[in-house]
Predict the structure.
Amino acid sequence: MERIVTCHLIFRAGYECIHSSVIRIPKQANERMARGHMIYYSACQPAILLLLSGLQLVHMQSAPRFTRTPTDQIGVQGGVASFVCQATGDPQPKVSWSKKGKKVTNQRFEVIEFEDGSGSVLRVQPLRTPRDEGIYECVAANEIGEISASTRLGVLREDQLPAGFPSIDMGPQLKVVERSRTATMLCAASGTPDPEITWFKDFLPIDTNTHGRIKQLRSGALQIDQSEETDQGKYECVATNSEGTRYSTPANLYVRELRDVRRIPPRFSVPPMDYEIMPGGSVNITCQAVGVPMPYVKWMLGAEDLTPEDDMPIGRNVLELTNVRQSANYTCVAMSTLGVIETVAQITVKALPNPPGTPIVMERSATSITLMWDSGNPHPVSYYIIQYRPASSTDPFKEIDAIATTRYSVGGLSPYSHYHFRVVAVNSIGGGPPSQTVEARTAEQAPSSPPRRVRGRMLSGSTAMVQWEEPEEANGQVVGYRVYYTSDSLLPVSQWEKEMVRGANFLNIRDLTPNKTYFIRVLAFTAVGDGPLSSDLHIIAKTGVPSQPTELKAEVKSETSILLSWMPPAHSGTDAITGYELIYRLGDQPEQKITFDPSSSYLLKNLKPFSTYVFQLAARSKHGLGAFTSEITIQTPQTQSIPPPQEVTCISPSSTTLLLSWAPPITDEIDVVTGYSIRYLAVEREKDSVQRISDIPSNCFRYRIEGLKKGVLYSVTVAAHTDSGQGPESLPILVRTEEDVPSAPPQGVDVVVLNATSARVSWRSPVAERQHGKIRGYQVTYARRTAGERSASPKMRELLLTDSQPQNDSEHELIVTDLWPNTEYSVAVAAFTSKGDGPRCKPIIIRTKPSLPGLPLLTVMSSDDGGAMLTWQPPPVGLSPVIGYRLSYGLADPASDSFMVQELDSVARSYTVPSLRVGVQYVFRLAARTIWGYGSSAQVTFTTSNTAETTTDAMVTVPVTIADVNMSAQEDVPLLVNVTARNINSSSAILRWSRPKNYNGMTGYRVWFAVSYSNGTDVAMESDVSETTVVLHGLRANSEYVARVCVLSKNGPGPYSLPISIKTQPEEEVFAVNFRVKAAMKSSVLLTWESRTTNSKAQSLVILYGDGERVEVDGRLGQKLVNNLKPQSVYTFQLTSKADPTGGMQHRADAMTAPNLLSKKPQLLEKSSSQSIATLQLPSVQTQANVRGFYIVVVPLKRQRGGNFQNAWSDPDEMNIDELLREINGTGRSVRLRRQVEAKPYISAHFQNLPGEFKLGDGHVYGAFLNRALVNGQEYVCFVLAILELGQNTVYSTSPFSDAVLFSDVEPQPIVDEEEGLLWVVGPVLAVIFIISIVILILLFKSKPDRKRAELEGRKCSFPSSSKAMSSQHPSDPVELRRINFPTAGNKLIKRRLSLTLMKGVLGIRMSSHPPVSVSELPAHIERMKANENLRFSQEYEVRH
């Protein structure tokens, strides 16, 4: 098949040859300028036609054929993979990529086309395993056919790489080269076998065989000869062997124009700073130098080079010092071919203080030691630390810090004890070494404990031997002992007989009276004083009778048993102890005696629990019973309590009674309950105390509590009693007694007369104790009075209260507006509840103000005799008729006080003021008069020339042009009818009327409205409209208005319509309704409400609760979880608007938090990884009272970016269990399906009685809930949720979270979080925006090619010449170095630009790869460049000299 070959030639002048040899000549081509000459259409047309006639060729089409197919690759995770595919054919085939039959579309997959259209490169970056692994297919297709080639990609993790996998040892680095110079991009790689190195430029492969200037060296480096601007781009080398493929990091190659640069010796632009650091600290010292050429910078420490010669940076060098222990001077050296300079940075290491001098003991007492020491430091010390400990102890030293002086008294020591002391000095760095240790001993003190183990026995009938041991706390050297004894224990000790003993621990007391009982006490004394006396030792003066046992102690073993222990009394062999006699009693009951064989302990059983016992013990020998010990007292513990009563309910049958019922506690024993007791408390009244009712028989399960307060919320509990005492109380039940009518009137009733027809009534709520329930509202009763007697039936107005308004001692007010002027009224107020009205207060007598007339409608016009003609209409009809008018007028000058006053009749409607001065402004005022006085004045400002301005008292001015008024052509203006008011609310109303028929001279309407029965303080308002509807704004709430409308014609206003009365509604703001407690946990409460806001703005609400605590919330949310509450506590929550500073309307809800039934968390017993099942030990329940059920809640944790899991809640009470409750109630099926996709908490089981163990994730159904299998790689925690019924309230008690349960993945999965999912939404949007931006830039560039070309030609980049002293591997271009080392913010786009010629010729400044700067911004730009010691200015501009 033959066809005409399409010729596409673009000529310099803009001619274009298109298909079918048709030449299209753009219209603009004739006007374009080439380089120095113009080509016109008329001159070239013959030559073009001859050329086109020889370009018609015929050839055959061909099918696609691959010239290069992709090869299999194995990459590393996070790396790069590139597949190259090229094909030929006629027409040129189009190459596309696919995976598994679907086109490759991903933000990590990029297809780069070859410039000649021969194919493309598929680049995948970064690689991910296993999602990127698979078969990729390259498809080449044209009109003739289609071919494909496939390749495989494998991706390995770093820990899976084989030993010989390629590694890039040295990759290409950023390079700047001058045009026509040689550029070398280095690359070195290793691997087994040796990898092959290839190169990519701008992600396309480089074919070194077709480029004569570009060749690859044996080392793998890429060498580019005769560099051109087209060589500029991003280069990367690729190492490939049989184990895999690895890509280097891309590096840019910049090609710059040759240029001449002036040479500048080096100087320090940023000299290094001196630093003071802590011992062992780190510091970075920066040294920066500039010059042309740019100098090398190195660091030296003395003669030692700290910077290697082969890696010496240019322009800037940062010395990093770590773990610095000594001070030193570091030298920064900057050198170039033009010179060497250096500067020194001093690093000072702060030193710790020296040890203070040896402490000296200045003073000592029994409990303190005063020390003094020398500082020992030449530099200031912040403070001192004294360290001390007992000399015999090996424990760590105790410390006293923040001591500011070198003298200090250490207190709290033990008397007569040896201590070690040392001192440490502290400065801003820390504490130094301690001083030498000094030993000191505290002074003596009287003993603080009596002698130990005082015992005695009879040696004969009149001699007793007493023995003892040294006191436990002697507090010094015991000098001796004093022994006191007497046979009369009632005498004071000072009157007892006494003996002094020195150097011995015993005493023989002689001359005792036989058969008498003696009381003996012993004390020790030191040189300072006496110690305390020992307890009494009882001895009977009888031979062979033992003394009392010592150290008698009692220890509780159980609820019914006590173990007694003692030290046996001393005795001789012939006076052996034959037994003991124990006396004990319960409280005030008679004593009981027990005798038993010799021993040092005795277990007393069968005692009564929760009882107090008194014990005495005596020893017995064959000679008789010895003395008894002193009494000791001990109490047996309470027996194991029985459960509380079950099924406790409470109702209020009347306003003063509660009926409580219950079931007996569940126990295994029979007839253990001996009775019941009830406890109740008024929770809303802080002054009320807890009341108890006891001695309720055990067979009674209902009880009526009487004598309660009306309408009060009570908390009621019941407890069972046994012989052992009272058991635990049941959970509190909140119940409110029935309401009743209030028994007291409102307080502080006050009535204030506002005007002739209204009065404000204010009052406070009745006394709280006599409200008898919730006050629903108040009733205001008022009646007219004549001659002291009521002359009309009373009227009533009610003020209804909302649920949120406070009840106690709150203030209220109501405005009564339908009163008669100058009339006496009696006003009374009463409160009412849902049960009825309470008593009214004492009537208050008031008299309303007289009714003053309203504002007349005044108009002023010029008269024929040069005066002013005034016309008016009477004010709105009031309760009192108008009996006259008063007119006053004068000059409008504020300094003038001379006004003429004229009294007029009530029937007058006009008045003419003659002979006014021309061109002078006058003020006219007209007021109506009734029997009660004058009303407000209508004011008109009138100029006798050609304009008049009409104003009211509210300074509203209406210009009236006199030239427009034709007095001779007066015509009848119709009266409006059918004026109605609709859509009346608290601040606005809509007026409507009928358009007059058969009248064409109408120009509009005038609406007049004012407050009814005005007393002269209210201002009438006027408004001119063109439609038959008007909206009156700015009305006062709960007020009565009168309105009239007239027709406006070209001759002026017509008569007003009959007045219409408008009563606005009371203002009431309802920001939310249905405020309630949805769920109460043990430490949190979920509150819900319905918002009444109609806009989309945030609604700031405040929730008040507890002891003045508050939390702010957006009302649009409709719910709030309040945390950090106390378990089993009553809370009152109030919801109010934050916008009202006085609190405004409030909603109230009461709640009781749940008890802590589940104090322990579920424990993980075992975990089966093969079945993904975890066995949990569930916590024990403290009580089963009123528990409706138990639920096992599983919480999947969210994986973070680092791979770790995190629990968003520290306690289950912090969770919003709204969805869980819907699932429990069977209303959350859609939620259950959604949770299978989202990681949300779910319920896995429901139990009526909580088992001991539970297998989590076994797949079984427990109480209509599926125990879902646990997912590998997902971490879980769980908790137990218990639902309790407390009377009419439902609460929720939770256990703590269990330990985390995790089953590891077999294959690690990629982390997909919300942010990555968001990329699939944001990514395409950003791509579209990027493409649109590129298109706009291309169009802008195409629109001004000549200017762009001129700028490209005129721009010359200065580049430093080479130097033997400088390495060719380091760039020396100041601009490039600035961009590498000192990145700056991008320059702003400017609207006006300077040409390069102007910049060169006028300013003498040459630009260095810098965009033009506007003239207006040039001074400020230069100042910015000169900052930092001209560093940036020297790099941006070079000024010719």
Notes: Residues 1082 and 1127 are 5 Å apart (CA to CA). The chain has a mean pLDDT of 79. The first helix runs from residue 41 to 53. The first strand starts at residue 16 and ends at 18.
